[in-house]
Structures are given as structure tokens and as C-alpha cells.
Amino acid sequence: MAVPKRKKSRSNTRHRRSQWKATAPNLVACPTCREPKISHLACENCGTYNRRQVIPQG
Amino acid sequence: MPKPTKGARLGGSPAHERLILANLATSLFEHGRITTTEAKARRVRPFAEKLITKAKKGDLHNRRLVAEVIRDKSVVHSLFTEIAPAFAERPGGYTRITKIGPRRGDNAPMAVIELVAEPLSTATVGATETKGEGAEKLDLTKADAEAAEGAEEQATEAKAADAEAKGDEDAEAKGDEDAEAKGDEDAKDAKDEDAK
């Protein structure tokens, strides 16, 4: 069975893991409630998209 | 070689996929709107719209073709007697998919697919037949929705946006651009209010 020949150094490990990055979501103001929402998705706060009620509230 | 169907494969086998799509379409016609994953919504949309097109023809042959897919007779009846006449004027595009974000548990992107309930709007008709009138009506509705202050400025802005959008032949694309322009104006409004 193939096994690693050398121990991977902390430096190499940490250098590789430094490239794991999260990207910030693209937020826009909801046209109805002004809350920030993710673009192209219905607003989580008021449940509207394009001023149309998509998620029933209450 | 046959071209594969667009979109994700569903279920574990072709038979399972057919059953999933048939059940989703049946639920959609029964309830008018269903919440499902985005992949399933994208697969069921052309499937359901073809069934509605058959229902709009309305003869016995098409009724039998639909009944092969939708096993619930009451749903077939309501599709032919209620849903299809409501879409008599609409040239396709009977359903709407709205993304509602990831689901808890497996983070699957969810969507709402619904039958379009609104009558064929002045915006769409105006874009295809009487472009100028439709644009003016849109401006009026926008002006009403906004505060009285600066409504004229916004109307001119909206007209400019409409003028840009007029180049597009596609009515839906026009609607999208209008909506975006509207959103921009709203953002400006919010900033103005904050400044005050």
C-alpha cells in the first residue's frame, strides 16, 4: 500500500489551509422592508420577492 | 444520439424519477404552489407546463394523455376546468419559481414553484403590443407607490430606465430591468431618508 514518505510540515499544512476562505454573501436592501437580503432570493424578514409575497407570514 | 434532459437526475431510477415528477406536478395543480428543492422545481416546471398546454387543448385525447401522468382524477378535472381556462390568454410561462434560500438540515437550496395567478399584466401586454402606453402605466404605478416628494424625478428616472429597456425584445427581461431600476430607486430613497 502506498504511504507518505515524509511528514508534512506544519508550515506546509498551515500554508495550504490558509487558502480555505469563505466569501461574503452579496447583500442588497429589500425593496419592501429595507432589511439586507441575499440577492435573487426571497427576503427572509418579510418573505417577499419583487414586492410579491412568496413566503406566507404569521 | 438522444439529447439528455436538462437539469438534475432525480430519484434512484428512471421510474422513480417519473414518479417524483408526476407527484410534484399533481401537488402543484392541487395546491397552486409548492415548496421544494430548486433542482426539483427546475425539473418540474417544463413538465407541468406541457401538461397545462395539453389541458388548454381540452379534448378527450389530451385528457387521456394527461391522465397517464396525473393519476388523481379530481386533479385532472380541476386542471381542465379551472387552471387551463385561467391560462387561456397566456402564451406559456404558466409557472413561476422563486428561490427562498437553503433549508435547515442539509442546506439544500429551496424554491417555491407556483401557478402564475395574476392576469396577463399591462406591462407584458404593453411591451408586446403598445409599448409606450405600458411604460407610462408603469411610471404611474411607481409614482403612486413612492412618496409625493421627488416623485417627478423618479418618474423621469424610471422613463430613462424604460428607454434603456425598450431595446430588449423579451418582455420578461424588460420586467426584470424595471424591477432592478425600481430597487435602485428604493435604495436611493433609503439613503435620502437616512440623510434627513
From TrEMBL, chain A:
GO cellular component annotations of the record: large ribosomal subunit
Q: Which PANTHER family is this protein grouped with?
A: 50S RIBOSOMAL PROTEIN L32 (PTHR35534), LARGE RIBOSOMAL SUBUNIT PROTEIN BL32 (PTHR35534:SF1)
Q: Give the protein's recorded name.
A: Large ribosomal subunit protein bL32
* Domain of life per record: Bacteria
Gene assigned in the entry: rpmF
- Composition bias of kind Basic residues appears in 1-19
The molecular function terms of the Gene Ontology recorded here are: structural constituent of ribosome
Disordered as annotated region, ranges: 1-20
Q: State the Gene Ontology BP annotations.
A: translation
Keywords (A to Z) from UniProt: Ribonucleoprotein, Ribosomal protein
Name the family: Belongs to the bacterial ribosomal protein bL32 family.
What Pfam families is this protein classified in? Ribosomal_L32p (PF01783)
Q: State the species of origin.
A: Thermomonospora echinospora
Identify the NCBIfam families for this entry.
rpmF_bact
UniProtKB/TrEMBL annotation, chain B:
What protein is this chain from?
Answer: Large ribosomal subunit protein bL17
Composition-biased stretches, type Acidic residues, lie in 146-155
* Quaternary structure and partners: Part of the 50S ribosomal subunit. Contacts protein L32.
Superkingdom of the source?
Bacteria
**Where are stretches of biased composition, namely Basic and acidic residues?**
130-145, 159-196
Give this protein's Gene Ontology molecular function annotations: structural constituent of ribosome
Record's keyword terms, sorted: Ribonucleoprotein, Ribosomal protein
**What is a biological process (GO) this protein takes part in?**
translation
Q: Which PANTHER family match?
A: LARGE RIBOSOMAL SUBUNIT PROTEIN BL17M (PTHR14413:SF16), RIBOSOMAL PROTEIN L17 (PTHR14413)
Q: Which organism is this protein's natural source?
A: Thermomonospora echinospora
Q: Where is this region: Disordered?
A: 125-196
Q: Which family does the similarity line name? A: Belongs to the bacterial ribosomal protein bL17 family.
Question: Which cellular components does GO assign to this protein?
Answer: cytosolic large ribosomal subunit
Q: Does DNA damage show up as a keyword for this record?
A: no
